[in-house]
Amino acid sequence: MTLQSLSKDRLDVPDLCHAFVYATDWLGVYVDEVNALNVYPVPDGDTGTNMHLTMQSVRRHLKETPPSNMSELAQALAKGSLLGARGNSGVILSQTLKGFADSIKESTEIGAKECILALKNAAKIAYEAVMKPVEGTMLTVIRRAAEGTEHMSDSHPLEVLKEAWEAGSVALEETPELLPVLKKAGVVDSGGLGFLRVLEGMIAAYEGRELPLPPEIQTGVQSQFEEEEFGFCTEFLLSGVSAPITELRDIVEDFGDSMLLVEAEGYVKGHIHTHEPEKLLGLMGRYGSMVRSKVEDMSLQHSELLEDVDLDSVSAPNVAVVAVSAGYGVSKVFRSLGARIVGGGQTNNPSVEDIADTVRGVAAQTVIVLPNNKNIIMAAQRVQDVISDKTVQVLPTRSLGEGLAAAVLFRQDADADELFAEMQDAASQAKTLEVTFASKNADIDGLSVQEGEAIGLVNGDLKANAGSANECLLKLVSDFADDAEIGTLFYNSDVSQDDVKELASQLEDEHDLELDLQPGSPDVYRFVLALE
User: pLDDT at position 6, please?
Assistant: First the structure.
């Protein structure tokens, strides 16, 4: 096929299929090389990995149902790349392929002119996908590659691709001059290199070149940059969307940065870095059916490589968990256990619609809701009234500790009814001690408290008061949890690290407790102690 392609002035469907399949393998050789150039310490999955996963999805579409005409080829490029797109680089690559596909879908074969137009449209669609395009990124390389072919209309399409690669290579070398963060790190743009490796793979396919050996990789550049709080890398895939893409972009843009929102073949794919992932996903769930979604805490990991899975064959999880939570430390633990978060709790009860929105934002058809506060249970139980396409099971957890004990058992592939029973049993055995301050004078169950006094609750019920928060916690443990062995002690910003360590040491010595200390309890609680 390759030698014949070189002798023809025009390329047909089998020629292009072979080129894109081979370009996927070619990029695979250079994944680590591209990853090593990443300068942003965020867990999108590294650039090379994301771009390769995007191309792998294209390859699956082309191989599983070989296209018989250019329209089917174009559909495979657009749909396959969108469904497989991961992170910024993957989504931009998917839109580049969509632009190329849209330009050739009415053709039977493509020559130099069609190839030039397809490259120009690829750059156009890629730029349109990004709300605020930044020069010095892969967008610059894609655009310059396309512009470099404008004088090639009388050439062979292979020569057009070669010229695009040459022009893109020049642009890649100039990216550090356009983007200060690249210059600081002494590297070129990783996404731009990934795009050029795809072009190079297509050229190699037509020339019949064998795959090269992977290059030797030096230490990556991410260690040059300090860690900071990036929020959550949030991605989603919607089907049956009921609103124009421009309207959705206006909504999503307010939630954060690094935003991409694109559509193809009846799907909308979104990616954003935000501090409100569940709120965003719940809102998006109003506009279509949530096929898949992903939330990753970018402050917890430098980089997470995503599994190489066939996204088209991945079914929705069997069951999901939605937990009401406040305090960044508590919410972080819930997320680490696989739960989606509804912001709220004591003094800030979420509405039925708040909880329903988060339920809409998960792909599973059965959702277990953990209210984690006795004042939120009734609202959670009304969610099923406003959602008709999912089964909502409310486990009436009265405290954060009960919710955490239940969430520990969560498995998304479990039988929903069996899982619910297991989680219910775990919650019933949990004990949560909370220390806050009285907002007014009161006499409750024989306990007289004064406004401003430290008060202690056991599973949401008032049980103790004391002159200080530390004293109150010690009293709660002594009176109601002396037989506990393990616990997680969350504390809020009013407590210093030295103070909480001293308090924990006293608890461990006096009560033979093993404690895990976690900052980030809800603001209203000085301490939350979840016991096992």
Answer: 53
Provide the sign of the torsion angle of the four alpha carbons 475, 479, 483, 486, taken in this order.
negative
Helix-strand-coil percent breakdown of the chain, rounded to 5? Answer: 45, 20, 35
Nearest to 251 by CA among 231, 230, 236, 239: 236
Query: In the prediction, which pLDDT does 44 show?
Result: 37
pLDDT tens digits along 215-255:
887 544 443 433 334 578 888 888 888 788 888 888 888 88
* Residue 520: pLDDT over 80: yes
Say how far apart CA 288 and CA 326 lie, in whole Å.
28
Pairing of strands 232-239, 267-274: antiparallel
Taking residue 383's Cβ as centre, other Cβ atoms within 10 Å add up to: 23
Tell me the CA distances in angstroms from 478 to 303, 511, 512, one per residue in order.
43, 8, 11
Average the pLDDT over each of 79-93, 287-301, 429-443, 480-494 and give the range with the smallest value: 287-301
Vertex 529: Cα angle to 524 and 530 (nearest 5): 120
What are the start-end ranges of the H helices in 430-481? 469-480
Eight-state DSSP code of residue 224? G
Asked whether residue 310 carries a pLDDT value surpassing 60, the answer given is: no
Pairing of strands 366-370, 391-394: parallel
- Distance, CA of 44 to CA of 271 (rounded, Å): 10
Tally the C-alpha atoms within 13 A of residue 210's C-alpha that lie toward its C-beta.
Answer: 3
Which residue in 287, 278, 296 sits closest to 361, CA to CA?
Answer: 278
pLDDT of residue 485: 83
Residue indicated by tokens 């610059």? 140
Distances (CA, A) of 30 to 140, 198, 402: 20, 10, 48
Name the token pair of 277.
Answer: 């992932």
**CB neighbours of 451 closer than 8 A, spacing ≥ 6?**
438, 439, 440, 441
Neighbours of 124 (CB within 10 A): 18
Chain-centroid distance, C-alpha 432: 31
**Alpha carbon distance 42, 303 (integer Å):** 6
Rounded to the nearest 5 degrees, what angle is found at the Cα of 286, between the Cα atoms of 281 and 292?
45
d(CA 241, CA 355): 21
Range list of H helices, 136-244 = 138-147, 157-178, 180-185, 190-207
Given CA atoms 442, 444, 447, 453 in this order, what sign does their dihedral have?
negative
- 257 contacts 42 by C-beta, under 8 angstroms: no
Residue 419, helix vs strand vs coil: helix
